[in-house]
Amino acid sequence: MSASLASECNEVKERYDNCFLKWYSEKFLRGTATSDECDPLFKQYEKCLSTALKARGIDSMLKEARDDNRENDAEHVRPNR
Amino acid sequence: MKIFQQSSEFDYTWEEVSISNWQKYGPWNEKTPHVVAVDTLSRTVDPATGILRTERLITCKQSCPKWVAQILGSPDTNYAYETSYVDPKAKRVTICSMNMTMSDLLSVRETCVYERASSAPDAKTAFSQRAEITALCGGWQKIKNSIEQFTVDRFQQNAARGKEGFEMVLEMSRKVFAEQRELIRMQQDSQILQQLRH
Description:
The complex is a heterodimer of chains A (81) and B (198). Chain A is mostly helical and 81 residues long.
């Protein structure tokens, strides 16, 4: 897996990434995922990352990108045709 | 605006490709050193469609030629915003990304799709990539054209390296899975042997 832009988040990121990959390959793709057991790890990683994004001023750039991305969501998250 | 597009196939199943896609920029890929970090910002499964939506922030370090840097004042760290959509029923991964850095001067929007290849749906995966590149900076059309062309050329180089790198990841991933399966099989065999001895 890849590193985090904030080295202080690398450890928790790795734990989350490994958990996700297992969930994705063993449950999500097989259609047996009922809940996301990696969520507690994601919350820890997210907490670390959001502090780092704020400190680097990336959070405001991100807000713009999210606004620009709305049309992609509208196009790609919709029921099967 | 300039458009870059290409399509190709991978000799791996859609499941293998879709799993390895999450490891694309990891240590198994030696061809994309310009991607230095990949962070997940959010991840949700849409209850109505079952589609997994992931938001990621990609950090790249790639220097521009001097003339581009002089016009755009480009920093050495660039950020890209990516949303991906995995539809497990249709067996399709769609990845949309855009540049966050210098976005007031240059717009790069890319869409990649991985789906089962129509020629061999259970063995191969089709990949298609399309990017729209638009210089937004003021000034002469000639300069805008040069900036767009430079970006298309860079895209082409990165796309070729990206495919080579992804092939390395797919190969490693298949090896590791085979080893894990072998390990589990050996453990099971030894359990059977132990039980026989008792």
